Amino acid sequence: MLKSSDSFFVDSAAEAAPALHKLRPRVALLSNPKSTGNIAQLPRIREFCANHPDLFHYEVEHADQIGQAMVAIARVRPKVLVVNGGDGTVQAALTELYNGDHFGDERPPVAVLPSGKTNLIALDLGARGDPVKALEQLIELAQHDLAPYIVARELIALRRGLGQAGAPDRPVIGMFLGGAGLADTMLYCRDKIYPLGLPNGIAHGLTAFALLAKLFLKMKASFLPPDPQPLNVSLRQEENMISGRFSLLAVTTLEKLLLSSDVGGKGEGTLKLLAIEERPMSLIRGLAASIAGKLGRTSLPGVHYQHADEITIEGESSNVILDGETFRAERGQPIFLSPAQPLSFVKLAA
Fold it and tell me: What SS3 class is residue 112?
């Protein structure tokens, strides 16, 4: 269902076209009402949109509707495209924006509201606090020159091999990939802890406690996160692959990896890889270096921090999560990561 600030409803982008051209909104908002963080905030956002004629609002309930949403949004030629949802919603929107040709060579810059259970991308872009206030700020910025607030962000293209007729799969686009123990812990939190209905902070704290109890106390129980599966991680410019079981595996193009800005690391390339072996001291070393802002400056036993332009992940049915979407790295069916062409984003604060 499409909803605009003029409170008209249509069932197709074609039907909407004449009215959309009359609106000329400066800001288009793409919302996922089913994003967990949106359940409480969406009524306020809808009310806000109804009172702002320079805002075009499109809601989707499933990721496969985002292509249709982009068709409608492209017709109004917005100055800014705002995504209202968790990292999974942002990833689906970026994938469609990257692979589709809805805007031609004039893709609008993307802004992200701080909503959803996870907000790594929103945080990287300076969006914090109340999503309605962030939306109000974006509308104000769109009245003027956006250039001081525009930043280019490198993206990750994830492919799972060859599709039909030997052509590469349509890439999935994102900014942060978690694998090995990190992915298992994220899924544990999503499937076991979030359904308890606890506040985010308590849910994340309980998940961290369960992980630390398993890692440091060697506890084994069905209510704890599972053991990470073995992984082989290959970098194109490296002769040797990184192999083993890892408490944490992360690949990102975000400015910060864990708590550290990009300060070092071996190799060259856009993608930043951090792999911490499944040993308590390795995890302590990696987290301590991150907190101190020294990650990548010195070599640490069990901690691998490198830059690359191509990364291959292969494992024994091991989970990886790219901005909320889960994939499996299988033996003989690896996952391929490479840089994608940068897109423009609106950064609200430093």
Answer: strand
Contact 235, 253 (CB under 8 A): no
Handedness of CA 155, 284, 279, 191 (dihedral sign): negative
**What sections of 148-265 are H helices per DSSP?**
180-188, 200-216
User: What DSSP string runs through 64-81?
Assistant: GGHHHHHHHHHHH--SEE
Residue 294 to residue 261: CA distance in whole angstroms: 9
The mean pLDDT of 82-95, rounded to a whole number, is 87
Tens digit of each residue's pLDDT (9 = 90 or more) over 107-121: 899 998 887 665 677
How far apart, in whole angstroms, are the C-alpha atoms of residue 112 and residue 94? 11
Closest-CA residue to 251 (of 185, 164, 335): 335
253 in Cβ contact with 272 (< 8 Å): yes
Residue 102 in tokens: 């809805």
Partners of 306 in the β-ladder: 266, 273
DSSP-derived 3-state class of residue 233: strand
Give CA angle at 68 (144, 324), nearest 5°: 80
Encoded amino acid at 313, one letter = I
pTM summary value: 0.81
How remote is the C-alpha of 56 from its chain's centroid? 23
List of domains in the chain: 2-144 (3.40.50.10330), 173-343 (2.60.200.40)
**DSSP character at residue 149:** G
Encode pLDDT of 31-56 as tens digits.
987 776 666 678 888 899 888 888 99
Token code pair at residue 266: 């071996």
In the numeric block, the tokens 């989970």 are attached to 319
| Residues 257-310 pLDDT 10s | 655 555 555 667 789 899 999 888 998 888 888 888 788 778 889 999 888 889
